[in-house]
Amino acid sequence: MERGAVWLSVGKRIRAAREAAGMTQAEVAKALGVSEASIRLYELGKRKPNPEVVERIAAAVGIDVQALREIEIENVRDALEVLFRLEDACGLTPGPDGTLGVDRTAEHAPKMAAAIEKWAEMKRRLDEGEIGEAEYEAWKSRVR
């Protein structure tokens, strides 16, 4: 997937996930029972798949459907809104130095904290060259 991009269309995400899974457009199309042209049009952004099709594509390439859903973050305010929602849902909290932490007493905080710890480990492995960009991106799209 593109590094540094804050927002990727569903089509670009589908293509990246398909390629990470080592599948062709024809293989994904066959798994879904649709034409190869349909997959190509989704990937090019010329046709937008409905939510049910997005779920089926995610299952076909072996990733969590959330990895394909669009989250539009075009500016700092959009990013803050996501962080505010994470505060409400998972206990994400801002630190006085600009860092983020997890209030471990919040309802879903233990799962969030564990996921962040695993993310930190995978990021360290990427930074130290133990894994490549493709493996890191594939891991991110499989996290549940």
Automatic annotation (TrEMBL):
Alphabetic keyword roster: DNA-binding
PROSITE patterns from the UniProt entry: HTH_CROC1 (PS50943)
GO molecular function: DNA binding
Transmembrane segments: none
Gene3D superfamilies in alphabetical order: lambda repressor-like DNA-binding domains
Domain HTH cro/C1-type: from-to ranges: 14-68
Pfam families membership: HTH_3
UniProt keyword annotation of Ion transport present: no
Protein name: Transcriptional regulator
Upper taxonomic lineage: Bacteria, Bacillati, Actinomycetota, Coriobacteriia, Eggerthellales
